[in-house]
Design goal:
Distance between the termini of chain A: 51 Å
Number of helices of chain B: 15
CATH architecture of the largest domain in chain B: 3-Layer(aba) Sandwich
CATH topology of the largest domain in chain A: Fumarate Reductase Iron-sulfur Protein, Chain B, domain 2
Number of domains of chain A: 2
Helix content of chain A: 55-70%
Number of strands of chain A: 0
Strand content of chain A: under 5%
Oligomer: heterodimer
Number of helices of chain A: 11
Helix content of chain B: 40-55%
Structural class of chain A: mainly alpha
Strand order of the largest sheet of chain B: 2-1-3-4
CATH topology of the largest domain in chain B: Rossmann fold
Strand content of chain B: 5-15%
Radius of gyration of chain B: 19 Å
Structural class of chain B: alpha/beta
Shape of chain A: globular
CATH class of the largest domain in chain A: Mainly Alpha
Radius of gyration of chain A: 20 Å
CATH superfamily of the largest domain in chain A: Alpha-helical ferredoxin
Chain lengths: 192, 294
């Protein structure tokens, strides 16, 4: 058995991480966490996470940047806001998870081909381009970009049922005034 | 026309068209005919906030601006749209430097927003504006004999609304009781259906929806009534796989509250989108003696 160190030395942590996150809108209260664990016990996804929400908050406070941004936890947050309404320290935990997702995308630290960030990015891309999401195209893109052809084939019978009941179509949806949307997106990007 | 404008979002034009097909005639019946917001764009849901929160608020700002020009408040039946528009509206009113910038960007793009629009969910409007007493007088087809599990999910009741309790809301239960149904004590009423995770990680989706279906069965519900397209979709499409995986007969109809409301108000059931269900609705019609099963 190889003996391995499991805990980081202080100098291996990122002392600016808390500051970096705290500056993001919605994350201002994070330092008030009392580690009570109400979030973890309320979370419907805790059992599937690599670190519970309570641990993620502790990690952010203590500079465990790589661990927090590389975790599955942040992607498994379904935004149900249960932790957020129950947190006695009034931390907007769901918004913290969103901030960490964005940081992970920025840093490229999420697992490649992992379906959740791919879905988020593809949906945002469709909306930025057409103003509308087209469910079928979104799902096709999701399976192609996560290289999950088998998953796509398994979904085919359901897709057919949805088409038969008129709940899914091949049409690509779009708003009329795409020009306006384009200039809005340009304006936001330029002032960032 | 009413003081509200209807924001459908992608789902009500796609996989949950039966929600649109039932909400429009139902609102007409209660005296609040709805017009669709012209050239609305998608709200971005949870996806856009995970990628770019400023842009997420900006694209919602365009919808709010369009509604403001119409002089009306928004009705958003999808819980995801409801939360996203409300969250963005609140942020834009916060005077946060980033919010001020987005307001400027909106103006530059020709969709100025002054912040006068309110975002409401149809359930909220039915309870607060129309009122259960009035709805009771409009019932032509009692739902007597039907046991329903009222399922609220997450984003309608948390965290940007104060019209009902975030853990144990009761308005949908009261509405169903007003229509003559029995609302069972559904303890899982605000538990998560997995949202979009049900589409990305199957194991998670099956487990979470199994918990909901099992609890509804345990309470002897004949059907689950939902207010959210994604909840309805997840609860419906996972059933066959759940029965196979957990070897438990948990199948049951999952319908929109507006479908049952419309039926109770006497709108022909052919006009309420029931035929789009991929789960048999026979148990529902058996209880309602509503004139033949699908």
């Amino acid at each position: 058995m190889k003996i391995q160190r499991k805990v980081k030395y202080e100098e291996e942590l990122d002392p600016d991480f808390l500051n970096e996150i705290q500056k993001i809108s919605g994350c201002e209260e994070i330092n008030g966490c009392i580690q009570c664990g109400t979030c973890s016990s309320s979370c419907p996804m805790s059992v599937y996470m690599d670190y519970s929400p309570r641990k993620i908050i502790a990690m952010v406070k203590n500079g465990f940047k790589d661990e927090a941004l590389g975790s599955f936890t942040i992607w498994l947050c379904p935004s149900c806001y249960t932790c957020q309404v129950r947190c006695p320290a009034k931390i907007k935990i769901t918004d913290v998870m969103y901030a960490l997702k964005r940081k992970a995308i920025e840093a490229g630290t999420y697992p490649s081909r992992f379906a959740i960030p791919i879905l988020d990015r593809e949906m945002s891309r469709l909306i930025a381009k057409y103003g509308r999401n087209s469910e079928l195209w979104l799902i096709l893109n999701l399976y192609l970009k996560s290289r999950n052809i088998w998953g796509m084939l398994k979904m085919a019978p359901l897709g057919l049922k949805l088409m038969k009941t008129g709940r899914m179509s091949l049409r690509r949806e779009s708003i009329k005034n795409r020009k306006q949307l384009k200039s809005l997106i340009k304006a936001v990007k330029e002032s960032a | 026309m009413s003081q509200y404008i209807y924001y459908p979002g992608c789902s009500l034009k796609g996989n949950s068209r039966s929600y649109e097909e039932s909400i429009l005639p139902t609102f007409k019946e209660v005296g609040l005919p709805l017009q669709e917001l012209e050239d609305w764009n998608c709200c971005g849901a949870t996806a856009y906030f995970s990628v770019d929160d400023t842009m997420a608020v900006a694209v919602s700002g365009r919808n709010l601006s369009l509604a403001e020009k119409s002089g009306k408040d928004i009705i958003a039946p999808c819980a995801g749209c409801f939360l996203t528009l409300k969250k963005s509206n609140k942020f834009l009113a916060s005077r946060h430097p980033k919010a001020m910038k987005v307001l400027e960007n909106l103006k530059e793009a020709g969709c100025e927003y002054r912040g006068t629009v309110e975002v409401k969910h149809p359930l909220e409007v039915l309870i607060k504006d129309v009122g259960l007493e009035k709805i009771k007088t409009l019932v032509r087809h009692s739902l007597r004999g039907l046991n329903v599990a009222s399922y609220y999910g997450c984003q309608l009741v948390r965290p940007y609304t104060d019209f009902d309790d975030p853990d144990y809301p009761t308005h949908l239960d009261s509405l169903m009781e007003t229509l003559g149904a029995k609302a069972v004590d559904f303890m899982a009423k605000t538990r998560c259906c997995g949202g979009s995770l049900t589409g990305t990680i199957e194991e998670v989706g099956l487990r979470l929806n199994y918990i909901l279906l099992k609890e509804a069965k345990r309470k002897a519900a004949d059907a689950i009534v939902t207010i959210c397209p994604l909840c309805q979709f997840n609860l419906e499409i996972t059933q066959a796989k759940i029965v196979k995986k957990y070897k438990e007969e948990v199948k049951m109809p999952v319908v929109y509250f507006s479908q049952l409301l419309g039926f109770a108000l006497g709108i022909p059931k052919e006009d309420l989108g029931f035929s789009r269900s991929i789960i048999s609705l026979k148990p529902l019609w058996d209880k309602l003696n509503g004139g033949g099963a699908k």
